[in-house]
Predict the 3D structure of the following.
Amino acid sequence: MGVEFVDLFDQWASSYDNTVNGGDPEYKEVFKHYEDMLGELADISVSPVLEFGVGTANLTRKMVRQGKVVIGIEPSLEMRKIAKIKCPEAAIYEGDFIEYPSLQVPVRSVVSSFAFHHLTHEEKVQAIRDYEALLEPGGGIIMIDTVFQDKDHRRQLIEAAEQDGFLNLAQDLKEEHYAYMDELKQAFKAVNMDVTFTQKNKYAWLIQAKKGA
Ligand SMILES: C[S@@+](CC[C@H](N)C(=O)[O-])C[C@H]1O[C@@H](n2cnc3c(N)ncnc32)[C@H](O)[C@@H]1O
C-alpha cells in the first residue's frame, strides 16, 4: 500500500545519497542537517527496532553501529540492494508500512525517516494503530518527515518553493501526502499515545510518540 512511487525510488537509488548530502539544490533545505537528524533519531531508538522505508540504510547503519538489532522494511529493490551492501548486519525485507513479513522479535521502537508521507491519512491512521499493537509496553514510534502545521503553512511552503524556482519540490509539496500536525496528533491520541513534534529544519520534524508502560 502506498507503494506507487517504487519505480521512482528504484531510479533514484544510485544518486540518493548525493541528494541527501546536499547535491541537489532543489532539495538542499529538505535534507538540511540530514546526518544530525538521523543521528538524533538513532540515539533515541531502543533495540529491537523495526524501521520502515530504509532507503540506502543511512539511519539503519547508525542504529546498528550503536549495537541495536534492526529489522528493516523497504519496497524498492534497488534501494534494498544498496542498503544490504552498506549495512549487511541488518535484516532488510521487502514490504511497506502496511504489509510486511511477520516478526519473531518483540519491538521496542518503530522508526522511519523521510518516508511516512507515502501513506494517505487513512493509511497513516491504520499504520499507527498496527504499530501501537505490536510495540512492547513503554515502546515508541519515532519518525522524521515533512509536516505541515496547518493549511496556511502548507501554502507558504509551496509558494516559497515556486518563488525559488523549485518546481519539482513545489509539486511534491502539493501531491505527496505530507501530514498535517493536528491530524497526526489525533491519530496518536486515538491509540492513547502521547506525541511531541520538534522542528529540525524548514520542512522536517522529529515526531516522537510513546506507548504507556
Ligand atoms: C526519501 S527516501 C528515505 C530513505 C531513508 N529512510 C532516509 O532517511 O534517507 C523514502 C523511502 O521510502 C520508501 N517507500 C516508498 N513508499 C513506501 C511505503 N509505502 N512503505 C515503506 N517505504 C516506502 C522508498 O522506497 C524510499 O526508500
Summary: Helices lie at 6-23, 34-44, 58-65, 77-86, 121-134, 151-163, 167-175, 181-189. The chain is about 45% helix and 20% strand. The longest helix spans residues 6-23.
